[in-house]
Design brief:
Order of helices and strands: HEEEEHEEEEH
Distance between the termini: 84 Å
Number of domains: 1
CATH topology: Rossmann fold
Number of strands: 8
Helix content: 25-40%
Mean pLDDT: 90
C-alpha cells in the first residue's frame, strides 16, 4: 500500500511537470538610427505616451484586423510597451537632435523643458497584408510659442516574415520613422 501511495505521488509530480508551459520569449524595440537635425530646443521633455488598452499587455499583439485581436501567446514584450516606447524614443531623439538633452517624465532627472512632447499612440500591429501599422498623434509644446504643434502620423512598414522577431524588427523601424517625424517637429 505504501508503494502505491509513493507511485501515485510520483505520477502526479511528473504529470504537473509535463503540463507546465514553456517560458515566454521576450522582445524589445531596438532604437533605429536616423537623420541628424541641426538645432532643436536645449531641453526636451518626452512627457506622456498613451497607448490603447488592447496593446497594454505583456503579449505581443500580432494584429487587430477583422474585429479580432490576434495575440502571440508566448511572445512577450520585455517591459511594458509605453515604458519601452518612451525609452526607445528618448534614445532616438537624442541621436537625431544631438544639441538637445532629452529627458522623460518618468526618469530620475528633471529640468525645466524648452519643449514638451505628448504622444497618443492609436495603433501598433500588423494589418491583413502583414505590414506593421503605426498610427499616432503628437503634440509638441514649445516654450517660446503660444500654440502647440499638432501632427498625425501613419507608417506602414513591411515585415520581412511571419515570426515575432521579424514583426518586432518592423515595429522598431516604424518607431524610428516616428522619431524622425518628432525630430522634424522640434528642429528650427
Amino acid at each position: 500500500m505504501k508503494w502505491l501511495c509513493l507511485l501515485g505521488a510520483a505520477g502526479i509530480a511528473t504529470l504537473s511537470i509535463g503540463c507546465s508551459s514553456p517560458d515566454p520569449t521576450l522582445y524589445t524595440i531596438a532604437p533605429a538610427a536616423g537623420r541628424v537635425e541641426v538645432g532643436g530646443p536645449p531641453i526636451i521633455l518626452l512627457d506622456r505616451i498613451e497607448i490603447p488598452r488592447y496593446l497594454d499587455r505583456s503579449q505581443i499583439v500580432k494584429s487587430s484586423e477583422n474585429y479580432r485581436l490576434d495575440v502571440k501567446a508566448n511572445d512577450w514584450w520585455g517591459e511594458p510597451l509605453a515604458a519601452m516606447l518612451r525609452r526607445t524614443l528618448r534614445q532616438e531623439l537624442a541621436q537625431r537632435l544631438p544639441q538637445s538633452t532629452v529627458i522623460s517624465e518618468s526618469g530620475a532627472i528633471s529640468a525645466t523643458p524648452d519643449a514638451t512632447i505628448d504622444l497618443d499612440l492609436q495603433r501598433l500591429d500588423e494589418d491583413a497584408s502583414g505590414k506593421v501599422v503605426l498610427q499616432a498623434q503628437a503634440m509638441v509644446s514649445l516654450k517660446n510659442r503660444k500654440t502647440p504643434i499638432l501632427r498625425s502620423f501613419q507608417f506602414n512598414v513591411p515585415s520581412s516574415g511571419p515570426t515575432s522577431g521579424e514583426e518586432v524588427a518592423a515595429v522598431s523601424a516604424a518607431v524610428g520613422q516616428l522619431a524622425d517625424g518628432l525630430a522634424a517637429m522640434l528642429a528650427p
